[in-house]
Prior knowledge:
The protein is α+β, with helices and mostly antiparallel strands. The protein has helices at residues 8-18, 24-30; strands spanning 3-5, 35-38, 47-49, 58-68, 74-82, 87-94.
Amino acid sequence: MIVRPLNLPELGLLIYLLxxxxxxxxxxxxxxxxxxxxxxxxxxGTLRFLNHMPNRHLGERIASTQFLDEDGVQVFAALYLDQHxxxxxxxxxxxxxxxxxxxxxx
Length: 106
């Protein structure tokens, strides 16, 4: 499990998703220090946000969008908070279950 900061395409997607979400100002302000781990290694997919709080679990979905991957296949993206209202997971998946190649500029 490799801990890393967000890359620019991920950051752009998150800013796009958070632009009208509840608590957007607070959550946007935390992105510059966010650390994530990739939950799959076969391309872009699910990112889990790290947090010092113990026993975190999936809470509510606060935003979602769709875009086309480089190969023309539809990609779905959803952003979730944990049970405490903190960033928990960014999930990206393709309609045909192949790995996401690239997150476009948002």
